[in-house]
């Protein structure tokens, strides 16, 4: 009798070992239980006096089998969820990295925009000075032209003075032409800088939009992981 109890204890210990740490039976342990059930059922079927016990035993077996199938589906679902969580974690980390890079790029673009606008302001200042200089030169040319015209009536003794005025007028005219050329160059540079500013601002807007999208995706992934 003692031997039977000890053997029963050994069977219980073996079943406890077969019961995995997740709270269910491994497939091999369940297969062993299935064989044991069939053996017991066969013995019960040979004794009609145990029919009631056999019926209850079959109910117990069906409940255990149903529980095992549910457990397998649950374990499969848990593994799928775990895999998805790992993938989402990698995506979240990648999104965070991309967000940090985009923030750095946006800051660089902001600095570039500020620099570009400073160049635009400098170009506009140069343009204003050039226009002022041109206006001044025009006044000098008009003054000298009037003096030269008056010099026609001067005597021959004043020919030298007239020639000097003519040379001065030509120099001022050349200076005016150079200033006009410089003004055209400034206008060209100004237009280039304005186009550059527009391009940089467009890039900045696009990157800010991308960052916003990434943040939304990150929030969605975090919400999925929390669920």
Q: Report the top-level CATH class of the domain at 98-226.
A: Mainly Alpha
Strand content: under 5%
Query: In DSSP terms, counting alpha (H) and pi (I) runs of 4 or more, how many helices?
Result: 4
CATH fold annotation of the domain at 98-226: Helix Hairpins
From the helix content, strand content and strand pairing, which structural class follows?
mainly alpha
Number of DSSP-assigned strands: 0
Please write the string of helix (H) and strand (E) elements.
HHHH
User: What would the principal axes of the Cα set say about the shape?
Assistant: rod-shaped
CATH architecture of the domain at 98-226: Orthogonal Bundle
Give a short account of the largest sheet.
Answer: none
Q: What is the assembly state of the chains in this entry?
A: single chain
Q: How much helicity do the residues have?
A: over 70%
Q: What Rg do the Cα atoms give?
A: 48 Å
**First CA to last CA: what distance?**
54 Å
Provide the residue-averaged pLDDT: 68
Low-confidence stretches: 1-10, 12-24
């Amino acid at each position: 009798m003692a031997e039977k109890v000890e053997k029963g204890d050994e069977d219980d210990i073996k079943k406890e070992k077969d019961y995995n740490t997740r709270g269910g039976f491994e497939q091999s342990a369940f297969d062993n239980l299935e064989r044991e059930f069939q053996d017991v059922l066969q013995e019960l079927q040979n004794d009609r006096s145990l029919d009631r016990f056999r019926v209850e035993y079959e109910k117990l077996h069906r409940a255990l089998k149903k529980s095992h199938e549910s457990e397998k589906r649950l374990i499969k679902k848990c593994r799928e969820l775990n895999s998805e969580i790992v993938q989402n974690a990698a995506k979240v980390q990648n999104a965070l990295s991309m967000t940090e890079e985009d923030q750095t790029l946006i800051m660089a673009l902001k600095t570039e925009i500020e620099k570009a606008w400073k160049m635009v302001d400098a170009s506009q200042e140069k343009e204003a000075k050039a226009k002022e200089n041109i206006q001044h030169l025009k006044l000098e040319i008009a003054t000298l032209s009037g003096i030269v015209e008056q010099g026609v009536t001067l005597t021959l003794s004043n020919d030298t003075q007239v020639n000097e005025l003519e040379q001065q007028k030509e120099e001022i005219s050349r200076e005016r032409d150079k200033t006009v050329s410089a003004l055209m160059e400034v206008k060209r540079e100004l237009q280039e800088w304005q186009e550059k500013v527009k391009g940089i601002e467009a890039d900045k807007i696009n990157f800010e939009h991308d960052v916003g999208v990434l943040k939304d995706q990150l929030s969605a992934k975090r919400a999925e992981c929390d669920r």
